[in-house]
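Human: Cast an eye over this sequence-structure pair and say how the chain folds.
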Amino acid sequence: MSKVIFDSAIALDGFFAGDHRSPQNPMGGVSGQLHSWMFHQKAFWDYLGMEGGKEDGKDGKYIRETIARTGAFIMGKRMFEEGEVSWPNDLYKADVYVLTHEKREPWVQEGSTTFYFVNDGIASALEKARRSAKGKDVRIQGGANTIQQFLNAGLVDEFFIHIAPVFLGSGIRLFDGIDKDKYHLKIMEVIPSELTTHLKYKLIRK
């Protein structure tokens, strides 16, 4: 059965992104610190259709498994605006639903990525994404505020956290404002790695 998931890297002090985010400074300039584990993996570059990566170990296996289970994405307008100017064509290889108040026609890319712009909230975006996913999982891509909305609405089934061994000191925290009484959390898997620690959680609604 299709699940709602998210998959996010954070710093050891809980920050998902840095300060001063903009299309010219995506994620506040901290992507390299949080995602270095991913950039080392051949699986990541294979997904982009590019040469790159020196490793193909358990981290790469994790990347491939997550890609394989994802059938559609949901993201917030801010994340979309940061990425629109720099993402390669057909990055997501699936339908992407962007939460926004902006009225805009779908952006159909070459390949299999189409961005749809949803103006009537997270429930509507999720309904549309489930149809697109065709039995695969719906991934809440970000940013932090969008993930928080889905968590607080009780809509998330599993999530994956990659804790980078860095302190950012400031920025945007992933779990600010979370309703602590919404779920029981169960640790499903812990995968240690040189550049991050992968944690998989199952969420059981109370």
Q: What stands out?
A: DSSP finds seven helices and eleven strands in the chain. Residues 114 and 188 are 32 Å apart (CA to CA).
